[in-house]
Amino acid sequence: MTVATGTTAGNRAAGGAVGTAHTRLEGRAKVTGTARYAGEVPFAELAHGQLVVSTVARGRITAVETDAVLAMPGVLDVLHHGNAPRLKGDYTNLLGKADPLLQVFQQDRVPHVGWPVALVLAETPEQAREAADALVVRYATEPHDVAFAETHPAGYGAGAQTGGTAETKKALDASEVVVDARYTTPEEHHHPMEPHAAMARWDGGRLEVVDTNQGSAFVADELARLFSLDAESVRVRSEHVGGAFGAKATRPQVVLAAMAATVLHRPVRVVLTRRQLFSLVGYRSPTVQRVRLGADADGRLRALDHQAYSATSSFREFIERSADFGRVMYGPDAYRSENHVVPLDVPTPSFMRAPGEAPGSFALECAIDELAEKCGIDPITLRARNEPEVGVVSGLPFSSRNLLACFEEGARRFGWAERDPRPGVRREGRWLLGTGTAAARFPSGVAPSTAAVTAEADGTFTVRITAADVGTGARTALALVAADALEVAPERIHIRIADSDFGPAMVAGGSMGTRSWAWAVIEAARALREKLALGGTVPPQGLTARADTGASIGALSQKERHSFGAQFAEVAVDVATGEVRVRRMLGMFAAGEIVNPLTARSQFLGGMIWGLSMALHEEAVRDGATGGHVGADLAGYHIAAHADIPQLDAGWVDDVDEDDPVGIKGIGEIGIVGAAAAVANAVWHATGVRHRDLPIRPDRVLTAGSTEQAGAAGA
Amino acid sequence: MREFAYERAADVAGAVALLGSGPEARALGGGTNLVDLMKAGVERPRLLVDVRGLPLDRIEEDGDGGLRIGATVTNSELAAHPEVRRRYPALAQAVLAGASGQLRNMATVGGNLLQRTRCGYFTDTTKACNRRSPGSGCPAVAGEHRNGAILGASEHCVAVHPSDMGVALAAFDAVVEYETADGPGTLALDALYPPVGEAPHRETALPDGALITGLTLPAAPVAAHSRYRKVRERASYAFAIGSLAAALDVRDGVVHDVRLAFGAVASRPWRARRAEEALRGEAAGAEAFAAAADAELAAARALPDNGYKLTLMRNLVVAVLGELTEEAGR
């Protein structure tokens, strides 16, 4: 595999570790199987819990028939709403009010298929599972409603709309060219390879938990609130995480394990099944989006109106903020956007990788492509014509905005200049060929974190921070950052992460993890160097400095801070069979300083593959009659296979924010943004037919055909 | 998963005896489908009879110009066999179009024929399914059936057979051989899978406790000029939404011999005999190919969301027979 092809000029001097390729510190442990995940760490006297979930979409539990199950081999206990310990549910944290899903077994109501109703505890996982399968739960069912539609009477506007309705309508009416299109995306799921697992035990008066999550301090804090414990009485660790993608905040497995350990007075592990992940760890709501663009004949935008609709559960509001994507993309005279949400008898959606941006960019970036077609202008030229000086909603200037540099370099590498803009005219055997492009953007946020750096007596340094490495390479990136901050070789850095005892820190979320943690590590390293500069020898127990970045983050200038990118795709479409195959993709990104080119490239590519998957494959199917999924496993829910991604490349351009003391932006999500639109736009270029509903399945392509066919039929 | 016993059969007679010991015994080949179904609770056998060690792992001449393929030959071995590739290329292509390299190394010919449908209702024990739980109903008819059957289905079941290999075998008149406690028997591949009718849970015509020991592929010169095309929702590692095994012998522009079988359209690999009859003696060309496809699909019954399969199968027949005609003309 080739290593990164981009260059970055960061805020630090050249010659450091940051910006050079490093393999993952834990890579060898992972590929040799010695890295233990939460479901694998051995404990003496471990009991196993198997969760039972509801099979009805709405109603009440009338009976949990435990007697027969308690008589089965190895069964220790069955927890359910009739006997479970009480939990606290009146707190608020980073993700809002307490999630009713985490209030396991606190009442008899069932709000969706797949709701936790009982936990069977047994000596072995096999015994627990067999008993869980045998447990009879009776329900008084009520009619359910799982049918999502933008016209659903229960739908409502979620939060204030941005921009003026009258002003936008006036600008649309005055436009020479108008695009008015409806786009849809289906229910999508973010399944890590490693399913959710947790072990909990009481040890010396402390609740000790081994979990798989995106933030051990966050989970420890939530467990303390749920079980009415002192914050110091809970310790959560999550050393290795096999993927997270927004699915691994506090999730039921860790609450169940803690509850069961409390009841049984012995260590308990709970591992969710693949099928349970479909209802218990969040997902992306289906969306319907209406985009209206008005422009002058030369493509200059006069109006941009983006209305987005998504679903949530009956008991918790989560809004897929698709309509927000355009807020800082272009500079129309009039702008309006609003998110609407429909409560249904379904699980609560959640922050699935690039929430809002992924579906929002699909709709808006396809609409921009349609506008370019209508205006007869190259889609990159059209975007360049609409570059804003400031955020159209906030009025704030950009800290750095290198979208056009991404398009310029991407177009050069992709060979965009040779592109014939006409659709449906390139044929190679049974395949019609086409290329497409789209813009990407993701906000660059930062949140307060704490870190400690210790100078050890042997000349090495130990960094402690409650960061989470969810497979991205964050651990390695932070070691490189620490090495440069201390001006030592990375080999002299020991890095320890994912232990709530290290203190509060941002979760691995919102593409804010590495940026937030690096900030804290750099500040702690600076403080340590000041201590060391005072002279004297390092004592045997080491010399430690700590940092809390709350104050310095608060002092950051108010600007629009974002990563940007340009996505390119080439596809082949056989309209006789409906098959769409991506031939190559290129993503160019402006995402601040790239800490580790090796793992960064991998993250960008992973995001692009996610976007490709979203464009062509991913779709969870809900059965109206039962209200549950059909094919809720990885055989039924398709993601791109290796053969679907033949040639991918990612690169980056310089992107410097002069005000920013750290210079790192997040890269976990931007790779997805715009990728599905680039593929969909390429499918149009190949066939002459716009596909506005994802995924672009064979049956849809087959039914829609091509302009070439239509022309032949009309001739 | 409930506890089960595991026995390794020493010979065919021993395996048959074990399989006949009760209705809850299952033969274990590669386990690539059975074990998954056991984890999902769809299959709950009391006894697994491992037949992988039986001396049924050979591909041999049948003495009549055909091949005899043992039941425990792996999919990988079948696809790689030089005589299979030379005489029945569509069969090798069909096998390679299925699953993944790892699965093909494990999966056996006998097991492939007996694999169960991947219908999402069948594999989910919380849902009704006449095939898994007779009389419980078929929610797919009014529910999710985008990959449902268009031929030979009934209101009781619209599931499709998942095998790629079986489609090529159906085109080439394979005969299945089995052994029972009462002696051996044979079934044409067509007859192995009974019509769905009112009893979709009766998936095969094999006698209770029978063990498939192998199959014969009769000599068929037309098969040497054959192709398998599979359409699926991703480039690899997915079941077909429509597939075609086709063999064509064109002489002086006229169809001398033709074999056609459709996949993912019915509860069994679907031999398209009506299409074959319509084509024999006709001038090879897109028009005749389309008319032949239409002759076969005249009996098709689409549900609201799987009507695209009619277009797909028609297009596949025209495209693949067109390619075979063109190649023969070179």
Q: Helix amount of chain B, in percent?
A: 25-40%
CATH topology of the domain at 399-433 and 560-715 in chain A: Aldehyde Oxidoreductase, domain 4
Helix/strand class of chain B:
alpha+beta
Rg for CA atoms of chain A: 26 Å
Q: Count every beta strand of chain A, where a strand is a DSSP E run of 2 or more residues.
A: 28
Strand order within the widest beta sheet of chain B:
4-5-8-6-7
Name of the top-level CATH class of the domain at 399-433 and 560-715 in chain A: Alpha Beta
- Tell me the structural class of chain A: alpha+beta
* Rg calculated over all Cα atoms of chain B: 19 Å
What characterizes the major β-sheet of chain B?
5 strands, antiparallel
- Name the largest protein-protein interface in this structure: A-B, 38 and 34 residues
Residue-averaged pLDDT of chain A, rounded?
Answer: 95
Segments of chain A where pLDDT lies below 50 for 5+ residues? 1-11
What's the helix count of chain A? 17
* Percent range for β-strand residues of chain B: 15-25%
CATH topology name of the domain at 226-328 in chain B, in short, is Enolase-like, domain 1
What string gives the helices and strands of chain B in order? EHEHEEEHHHHHHEEHEEEEEHHH
Distance between the termini of chain B: 57 Å
From the coordinates shown, what is the CATH architecture of the domain at 226-328 in chain B?
A: 2-Layer Sandwich
User: Architecture of the domain at 399-433 and 560-715 in chain A, according to CATH?
Assistant: 2-Layer Sandwich
Mean pLDDT of chain B: 97
Structure, explained:
The complex is a heterodimer of chains A (715) and B (330). With 715 residues, chain A is an alpha+beta fold. Among the domains of chain A are: 399-433 and 560-715, Aldehyde oxidase/xanthine dehydrogenase, molybdopterin binding domain (Aldehyde Oxidoreductase, domain 4), CATH 3.30.365; 447-554, Aldehyde oxidase/xanthine dehydrogenase, molybdopterin binding domain (Aldehyde Oxidoreductase, domain 4). Chain A is built from 17 helices and 28 strands. Chain A has a seven-stranded mixed sheet, with helices on both faces. The two termini of chain A are 49 Å apart. Chain B has 330 residues and is an alpha+beta fold. Among the domains of chain B are: 5-50, Uridine Diphospho-n-acetylenolpyruvylglucosamine Reductase, domain 2, CATH 3.30.43.10; 226-328, CO dehydrogenase flavoprotein, C-terminal domain (Enolase-like, domain 1, 2-Layer Sandwich), CATH 3.30.390.50. Chain B is 29% helix and 20% strand. Chain B has helices spanning 12-19, 34-39, 75-80, 82-87, 89-96, 101-106, 109-114, 165-171, 189-192, 273-279, 286-297, 308-328; strands spanning 5-8, 25-28, 47-50, 59-61, 67-70, 175-180, 183-188, 211-217, 226-231, 242-251, 254-263, 270-271. Chain B has a five-stranded antiparallel sheet. Chain B has a four-stranded antiparallel sheet with strand order 9-10-11-12, with helices on both faces. In chain B, helix 10 (273-279) runs antiparallel to helix 11. Chain A binds chain B through residues 55, 126, 129-130, 133, 275, 430, 576-579, 581, 616-617, 621, 623-626, 628-633, 635-636, 638, 640-644, 697-699, 702-703, and chain B through 1-3, 41, 118, 120-121, 123-124, 126-127, 139, 142-144, 146, 231-238, 241-242, 305, 308, 311-312, 315-316, 318-319. Chain A: InterPro entries: Ald_Oxase/Xan_DH_a/b (IPR000674), Ald_Oxase/Xan_DH_a/b_sf (IPR036856), Ald_Oxase/xanthine_DH-like (IPR016208), AldOxase/xan_DH_MoCoBD1 (IPR008274), AldOxase/xan_DH_MoCoBD2 (IPR046867), AldOxase/xan_DH_Mopterin-bd_sf (IPR037165). Chain A: This is Xanthine dehydrogenase family protein molybdopterin-binding subunit.
